[in-house]
Fold:
Amino acid sequence: MASSILIVDDEESICRAVAGILADEGYTPASAASVDEALQRIEQQVPDLVLLDVAMPARDGIELLEELRRSCPELPVIMMSGHGTIETAVRATKLGAYDFLEKPLSYDKLLLCLARALETSRLAQENRRLREEITRTHEIIGESPVMQELLKQIAVAAPTDGRVLITGENGTGKELVARQIHLNSKRVSNPFVEVNCAAIPEELIESVLFGHEKGAFTGAIQMKRGRFEMADAGTIFLDEIGDMSLMTQAKILRILQEHRFERVGGSETLEVNVRVIAATNKNLETEMAEGRFREDLYYRLNVIPIYVPPLRQRRDDIRPLLEHFLERASAQNSGSRRSLSAKALEKLAVYPWPGNVRELQNIVERLVLMCPRPVIDVEDLPPQIAHPDREKLLRGLQSEKLADARAAFEREYLLGKLRANQWNISRTAEVVGLARESLSRKLRSLGITVEKQKDVE
Ligand SMILES: Nc1ncnc2c1ncn2[C@@H]1O[C@H](COP(=O)(O)OP(=O)(O)OP(=O)(O)O)[C@@H](O)[C@H]1O
Ligand SMILES: [Mg+2]
Structure:
C-alpha cells in the first residue's frame, strides 16, 4: 500500500509542488496549511510520515513536533526550513525529528530522506510487533496462589541486575521464568543466550562458553566467539547447571568474580557485562554435600532464588494451562477450537503430572492432532490418565515374579477400599476382613502411607 505523507506548510505553492512529486513517486500525499489543520487531519487519520515546515504564522512547526512526540511517538517527522539555522536543526532533532531538510528543497535529497525515514519506521514497528509476539509466546500461565507469588517475585527480580537461581522439577517452566526475567529487564533489547550445560561435551564446554582463537586446537580453523561474549550487555542462561563438571564450575566462578576471561588459546583478556540466570532440577544442597557442586559457586549464583513448584502442588493451574495449550494447538493446526468434556477434565485435573507442564503441553498437542472430534472425551486420553488404576494394575500383573504381581494386586485393591472408606483404616480393615493391626502392617509392607496418599489425591 502506498505510504501516506502529510505536508504541513503555509506556502501553498510548496505544498502543491511537493505533493505533485510525491504522487509521481507513488506516495499518497495530503497537505495542511497550518498546525491546527494538520492536527485535525492527523486526528482523522494518522499518516505514515509528516513533512513539516518550521516557520509558520500562528503556531510553528516545532510546537507541532513537540505535540506529535507526545500523541504519536512512532510517527516519523521530517522538518524543513527556508532559514535553516544550525540551532533550529539541532533543536528539532533533539525533539525527535527524523531529519532536517533545507529549503529550497533538493527533490533527490527529499525522496532519499523520505524512503529512509519510512524504512526506519517500518523496522521499528516490526521490531515492536515481534517483541510483543515473543512476550505473548512466553507468557506464564498460573492462577494458583504460588504462581501468583512467583509472578510477583519475577516482577521484583527482573529490573535488578541480580543473579537468579531457578530450581524445580523437569518441565515446570524454569526456562520460561528465565526468559520472562530477561523480557522484563533493562537488557530486553540485548541478547538472551542460552547454554545447556548438560548437553555440551566436557572437552568442548570451555570453547563454547569462552570462544576460541584460530588454531587453538585441531579443528579450530576460525576464531569463534563464546556464549559469554555473545551475551554481552544481555543475559546468559546457564541451564542444567547441576550437571557441570567441577572443572567447568571453576571457570564459571572466575568469570562471575572477575567479569573477564580469555578465549581458548588466546592471550587477550576480554571483559563482558552479562547478567547470569542459572537453572537446575537437581538439589544443589545434596550435590554440595556430596562434593559434586562447589559451595562458593552456589553462593555466587544463588543471589535471588526462585523455586518453581511441580504442577501437582498447584492443581488450580491445570485448567488454565489446558485451555491455553488447547487454544494454541488448535490455532496452529488451523482447526476449529477444541474443548474437553467435563469427565475428561476431571481425569486431567487429578492426574499427578510427573512431567509437569511439558507433559501437559505434549498431551494437549497430541490430542488436538489425533482426535478428530471437537469435544475430547475420556476415551481419547492416554490410558495412564483415563484409567490410572487399571493401568498401574495391568503393569503390575505383568511382573515376572508372583510376589510382585500379588503386591500390585493388593496395592490397587487396598487403595480402592481405603478410598471408598474415606481413608479410615479401622473401617477398611473391617470391610476387607482383616484385623486393624494386620492391615496397618500390610500397608507398611506395600509402602502405602495413608496420610501421603490423601494429600496426593
Ligand atoms: N506456567 C506456564 N505457562 C505457560 N507455559 C508453560 C508454563 N510452564 C511451562 N510452560 C511450557 O512448558 C514447556 C516446558 O517449560 P520449560 O522448558 O520452561 O521447563 P523447564 O523447567 O526448563 O524444564 P526442564 O527441566 O525439562 O528443562 C515449555 O514449552 C513452556 O513454554
Ligand atoms: Mg529447561
DSSP finds 21 helices and 16 strands in the chain. The longest strand covers residues 275-280. The mean pLDDT is 92.
